[in-house]
Fold:
Amino acid sequence: MTTNSSPLTLPVLDLSRLDRGEAEAAAFRTDLREATHEFGFFYLTGHGVPAALVERVMRTSRAFFDLPEDEKMSIENLKSPHFRGYTRVGGELTQGKVDWREQIDIGPERAAVDPATTTEDYLRLEGPNQWPSTLPALQEVMTEWRDELNAVALRLMRAWALSLGADENVFDAAFADKPFTLIKIVRYPGKSDPTPRQGVGAHKDSGVLTLLFVEPGKDGLQVEKDGAWIDAPPLEGAFVVNIGELLEVATDGYLKATVHRVISPLIGDDRVSIPFFFGPALDATIPLLTLPPELDAPGITTDPENPIFTTYGENALKSRLRAHPDVAAIHYADLAE
Structure:
């Protein structure tokens, strides 16, 4: 793990250290625990995701945003009760304010659940994706991307478990049956009024962990640390990793879900980023760990405006309804109150 104090930067961790013998693996796990206790964010290198796949993902993502507007709008998320498909610029909110970005949301490809057959509203998030008919490569490459990042995320979960004094496989069961991951392909257009717009407002992620790949050379991500903002520009070949609210719950606040935001580019530029949100099954409850005595857990963050639910589906639905009130008004009118 490396850090710089002037200016402050995020730690950098190399996942391949897990393959260099037990001593090096144990040192990596300690660095992982400390990085996410102190920052909640880090850069991940040595992850093993093929560079050729990264290049295909970025190229295909750009091709999607280059499609004619009517083709993108044909899969607008307003048509999906599962919050899937294309969101136009200004179509998503964070903390009630408009985010200056366009995106496509891609979840697990599953059949929809009949609302009449379930008492759990969050199960209505299950369902099919919307794919652009003129870009079949998008479904193919993003399915491969999901498989690769699932493997990286599960490896990190097992490393965290060991670093926190738990069994290596303590989290496995939550992800074994129908894990609910989400991929967003996001483009931030340039905007100056005369200052940059809110690309994504300050927030915490609602799941377990996020693997973010940012187009090389494109700044904008900022992470909160001790009341100040740390710039987190892309590091070549690396993912930015952050923990979500459920890992904070699992560790009674020892690992903190960290507030972060994105500042949109200025006129004449844009930025593509692809966050991968690793989540368990919607009806899964994350295990609550008993930490070793030397790890002092301060308790989870309490915020009446943003309660953290232990069942992932409740947390996920909470976030979707707030971020997309227009979709909620169409497909979740019964939950308006």
User: Anything to note?
Assistant: The chain has eight helices and 14 strands. Residues 192 and 266 are 5 Å apart (CA to CA). The domain at 45-335 is CATH 2.60.120.330 (Jelly Rolls). Confidence is low (pLDDT under 50) at residues 1-6.
